[in-house]
């Protein structure tokens, strides 16, 4: 059980998207990174090139980069605030509990 799970709503606590909220798309456990949809977006300018068939593609490509997990916090479903969570055991299963309101959620 990880304190961050896929599909969690998280708030960005630092960096250029500070204060925004998004959904966890992927947790890179070993790297300590999380991918949050629509966050940490960078633009890459790509030179137009000729594709097979004659279409020209190019211009600005947007892509997300993973964020360090220390810069996001889970949004508690009950108090609707970015909170720290701790792991608790409930009926033999690890669950997460909000530190602020003690709500236990999966
Ligand atoms: Zn809470």
Protein described:
The structure is a single chain. With 106 residues, the chain is mostly beta strands. The protein has one domain: SH3 type barrels, CATH 2.30.30.30. It is built from no helices and eleven strands. The protein has a six-stranded antiparallel sheet, with no helix packed on it. A hairpin with an 8-residue loop joins strand 1 and strand 2. The chain is elongated, with a radius of gyration of 18 Å. Bound molecules: zinc ion (ZN).
Biggest pleated sheet: 6 strands, antiparallel
Write down the CATH topology.
SH3 type barrels
| Class derived from helix and strand content | mainly beta
User: First CA to last CA: what distance?
Assistant: 9 Å
**What percent of the residues sit in helical stretches (DSSP H or I)?**
under 10%
Uncertain runs are: none
User: What is the number of strand segments?
Assistant: 11
Q: Return Rg in Å.
A: 18 Å
CATH architectural group: Roll
CATH class term: Mainly Beta
For the largest sheet, list the strands in their spatial order: 6-3-2-1-7-8
What's the overall average pLDDT, rounded? 92
How many domains, as an integer?
1
- Give the topology string: H per helix, E per strand: EEEEEEEEEEE
Q: List the ligand species.
A: zinc ion
